[in-house]
Structure formats: C-alpha cells, structure tokens
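hey so i finally got around to running the thing on that chain from the lab meeting. sorry it took forever, my laptop kept dying and i had to restart like 3 times. anyway pasting the input first so we r on the same page abt which one it is
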Amino acid sequence: MSATTQQLQAGVAVADITPPVGYRMCGYFNERLSTGVLNPLHAKALVLRQGDTRAAMVFCDIIGLSADVSTRARQQVQQETGIPADNILLAGTHSHTGPLYFDALRDHLHQKAVAKYGKDPCEERDYSAELVAGIVKAIKEADAKVRPVQAQAGVTQQQGLSFNRRFHMKDGTVRFNPGVLNPDIVRVAGPIDPGVGMVFFRDADSKDAFASLVNFALHLDTTGGTLYAADYPYFVEQSLREKLGKEFVLLFGTGTCGDINHIDVTTKDRLKPEVIGVTLGRTVAAGVAQSKAIDKPSLAAKRAVVEVPMQRFTAAEIEQARKDMDKIGTSDLSFLDQVKAYKIMDVQTRGGSTIPLEVQAFRLSDEVAVVGLPGEVFVEIGLAIKKASPFPVTLVIELCQDDVAYVPTRKAFAEGSYETVNSRIAPGGGEVMTDMAIGLLKELAPARA
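ok and heres what got predicted. didnt touch it at all, straight out
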C-alpha cells in the first residue's frame, strides 16, 4: 500500500460540529445542559495521498466517538471519495465541554425525558447524524484541497503541564485525584509522557506551514462549566497562528492520558486552559527547528481488531445498577458506586462477552508513524508502544474510532481506584492492545540493513 516514488500530498479542512445550545454535555456524572458557546467545536480533517495510497485523519472536539458514528462516517467517506474506510482514523480530543450524545447515561436521561414529556426537549436535533455529516464534509473538503507538500517531523519535550493523577496513600490504597497538599500522599503511582510529537505540513511551492499534527498526553478537562469549548487545544492553535498565520490549522491528537491530568498536588495553584495552551503552543513552535524534513515519504496504513473480554456481572449486580442510575448526580450514592452503576449499564448496552478494540498504524516515512487506539488509554501503554516502535518519531493517539472508556494496565487494575472501576474491559486487555500496536508498527517498518 505504499508508493515511495511519488510526492506526498496533503489537504486540510475544518467543519463546525457545535451542537445546539441546550443539548446535554458530557464529561461528568450529572445532567448538564449547555448554555452557550465559549468557542466552537470542530472536526478537523487531514487527507494524505501518495500515488494510489490514500488516508485520512479527523480530530473532533468532543469527548469521544461512538462506534456507530465512526462506522457510518467511514463507510460514507469510502463511498463518496474512495478513501478506504480502513485507512480513516477518527479521534475525539476528549473535551469535557462537548455533547453527551451516546452511552448508558445519555440513554437513561433520554428515556426519562421521553417518559415525562413525550419527547426529549434536549434532543430536538439528531446530533449523531450531524456529527457524521460534519466528519464526512471535512474529509471531502480536505480531499479536494490535497496538493504537494513538504512534511517535517520531530519530538520535543513539555514539562510542567501534565501530572499523573494516581497516588499511593498512607492507608495502602491507590487513589486518583486525592486533593492538593494531601498529607496522606506517599508517592505518585505512575509516570507521565512529556513527549510532544509533531508533524508539520508545508506547501511545496510557497513553503508556508499550513497545518500540524500535534500529539501530547494531557487530559482535556481544564475548562468545565456549561459553555461549549474545545479546551486547551483551542489556545494551542491560537498561539501557533500568531507565528504561522491566521489560517494555520492545528490537528490535535490526544496522547495516552487515561491517568494524566493538569493538577499539581504540591500546590494550590491550578493551571488554566489558556496558560496550558499558550505554553504548549510555544513549545510546538520552538520545536519546528528541531524537526527533520521527511525527504522520502512512504505512506502506508494497517489496522487490526482484537477482541478482548469485557467485565462480567451477576444478575443481581445488573439489577442494582439499573436502580442506581436514578441516583447518578445526587448525594444518595457514593461517587464510585455511581461510576460502577454507569459502567455496568454501559456494558449491558454493548452486549456480548467481548469488546472489539481497533488498532491502526500509519507510516509516513521510514522514520515517522502514527498509531490510533480506542478508549482512554493509560500513559504506560503509550510509552511502551513508543519504546518498542521501530520508528524514531511515533505519535500515539487515544480515543480513536470507539470510546470504550478506560484502558488501564494490569498493574492499575490490581491497585484499583476510579479509572479501573470505570473500565469496561477485563484486566489484560490493554496489554493485548499494546502488543497488537507494536506488531503493526513492525509490519510497517522498513527492512534495516
């Protein structure tokens, strides 16, 4: 599927996917209705072409993608553009200030509204259909704009913005977000990934940079409130536009940050989205000088689907979870019990005993590759993939194709706490996915002399 003798071509386009005001918002365990727009939500598409090989990546300012939306969008794009569905990566950035349009909580709240009003006043429009249309529109427009490009790629470092949020406590437990300056904290339970992967695209004629794919592992939960917002990547893009022009497009692929956020427990000071975005934007801009030109592009793509076991529950647990759904967002049930009820009902909606995890790998050159993983993936998994990758520059993007919730490590499952309670997969699934990603990268790797 590669075409190493032809010039790499690329095109980008942006579609507005902001829901109507009044739609439910996603990210927390309560019903939260939007009241306005802080900044619009977008689907940003990158289409790549080299010879007969074509691929597309789309990054959406939403919590994640449902498998239904991903499947419909990819199939429609294939039908209308000829880009193979297998070569299309669709990712959510994981903004917590976007729409709640799928999963067990949405279904529960929707059904309650219909029972009470005869319809759901929060869903006057079919957002899933609008999201599919926005993704397809962005890819088609990007495909129409492809032209010869010069790409350059590299990895730089960003310290001081990301922190592992899981900690060993004095009572022997592991807790997530135990609170700043908590005297019971013993030590952090895991690492961070300070690497910032970058691929810049320049017009082959003008040499102007018109877009960049940026990959960094930091949870998009820095904004909050009831206004739609793209979170800190919005400010990364604004910062880069000051240097690279107002039409520059940031394609932000969230790194594996299932256990990473922006809270430094050693201080009461809280990093704001503007500060995070501007700081990261400056780091990316400075990283241009460190990146290397992709002189011999060799576009190729591979994918694989691995079925991993889902967690299993008794009939009594399922019945209790069904009853507890009405207590989500109240003080009548502990937080972790709310999370457990939500998780159990979500597993029931998926059906079956296993869950498919789709892994994608894209080769841009002998030195540069991009990996797409489903779910909120623990940072150790992304680090393991990068360490084993035969490509010096490897971008690992989470929340691709299907938001399967948390994908922890076996170690994290043994330790417990929020992320493991909120995971749908059984222990070991993350490691199976890791091995699959490494295997795909090795298949794409050039033969070394």
